[in-house]
Amino acid sequence: MVLAVSGVPQLEWADGQGLADMPRTGVLVVTAASGTDWTNDAFGGPQQHAASLLGFVPSGDFSFSAQTRVLTERTTFDAAVLAIWGDNDHWAKLCFEYSPQGQAMVVSVVTNEYSDDCNSTVIAEDSVYLRIVRSGLGWAFHSSTDGHNWVFVRVFRLAYDGPVRVGFLAQAPMGDRCVAEFTNITYSTTVRADLRDGS
Q1: In the chain, domain spans
Q2: Sign of the dihedral defined by the CA atoms of residues 146, 65, 103, 107, in that order
Q3: What residues contact residue 108 under an 8 Å CB cut-off, 6+ apart?
Q4: Of 166, 164, 87, which is closest to residue 130 (Cα–Cα)?
Q5: Which end of the chain is more exposed for a tag (fewer CB within 10 A), N or C?
Q6: Using CA atoms in the order 8, 12, 18, 21, what is the torsion angle rounded to 10 degrees?
Q7: DSSP secondary-structure letter at 77?
Q8: Class of the 12-188 domain?
């Protein structure tokens, strides 16, 4: 089944076939099976790339955002995710993740061979907006509770020259499954010059 989100370039699966549905217009639901995650252990443990990305190949600068929530009962490290995939050693993800302390929060991971994992804002609501921006060779992650006022999460580069895919992912490394919902999805080729000004 081909899934099309209005205003977003053509979506295809990367890193394996996943499970997704659009129950109504503008709503995308991605389901992760038990044990699915992306991680390149900074301490040298085994890599894990069992989750599948439903994404598009971007062209030039862009901004891509969605309101994210997890519909299933929360389990440790489950997440609704916006992500960038180059290959097994070059990827990044911005997650609405559940911590071992039982808190829903914004978590970002940037991987250039090994993963750099950073916890950000704790989220009291049942959803959060996540945003990926590409500007030239750089990338930026943001989050927002209302979709208007954005909090800067991080800026980075991927040491990867090949084409990347950007899109939607769900992960359930320790739970039975994770059903992630994405709404208010936007894609724009207009990128602001100041990535830290909250707009």
Answers
A1: 12-188
A2: negative
A3: 92, 93, 94, 95, 117, 118, 120, 141, 153, 154
A4: 166
A5: N
A6: 40
A7: T
A8: mainly beta
Q: Is the pTM of this model over 0.85?
A: yes
| Tokens representing residue 55 in the block | 């994404």
Question: How does residue 57 score in pLDDT terms, banded at 50, 70 and 90?
Answer: very high
Report the amino acid identity of residue 119.
N
Length of the chain: 199
pLDDT tens per residue, range 96-139: 999 999 999 999 999 999 999 999 999 999 999 999 999 999 99
Distance between CA atoms of residues 110 and 48, nearest Å: 14
Residue written as token pair 């099976």:
33
Structure tokens at 103: 């808190």
> What is the C-alpha to C-alpha distance for residues 85 and 167, in angstroms, rounded to an integer?
9
The neighbouring-strand residues paired with 110 are 92, 116
Nearest CA to 75 out of 196, 173, 188 is that of: 173
No. of helices (H) and no. of strands (E), the chain: 0, 16
Tokens describing residue 156:
């980075």
